[in-house]
Amino acid sequence: MKTPSEVLREGELEKRSDSLFQLWKKKRGVLTPDRLRLFPAGPGARPKELRFHSILKVDCVERTGKYVYFTIVTTDRKEIDFRCAGESCWNAAITLALIDFQNRRALEGFRSRQERAVPAAQPEPRTARAP
């Protein structure tokens, strides 16, 4: 079982800024089983976190000569654009980690529903009576 602090992948990727000019900003990404942390290139700044419970999907994958471009779509329909070096496969790593997270969450939900249903379905124990 994977722990939330386990690092699945670490390296450089670029995020498109929300500013008017939409510049690409280098980030150091750290992918864990439950989130993607983005550290700014400069020292001292706090990382931003994209937790998988707030991500719907990784979308719009496009490969050009040098880069792979992809979009992370959040549960509030916000789209965050990224690009990475073609050989780094960040989009695939994030997609696989997201699917694994969603599968674990679905299993936990299924198990908790089963546990709540089991006590109601069990017959009451019979007691033996002496003659």
From TrEMBL:
Its main location: cytoplasm. Residues 7-101 form the PH domain. It is found in: Cytoplasm; Membrane. GO terms for biological process: placenta development; positive regulation of apoptotic process. The keyword NAD does not apply. Keywords: Cytoplasm, Membrane. Residues 112-131 are annotated as: Disordered. InterPro entries: PH-like_dom_sf (IPR011993), PH_domain (IPR001849), PHLA1/2/3 (IPR042832). One of its GO terms (molecular function) is phosphatidylinositol phosphate binding. GO terms for cellular component: cytoplasm; membrane. This is Pleckstrin homology-like domain family A member 2. It comes from Heterocephalus glaber. The gene is Phlda2.
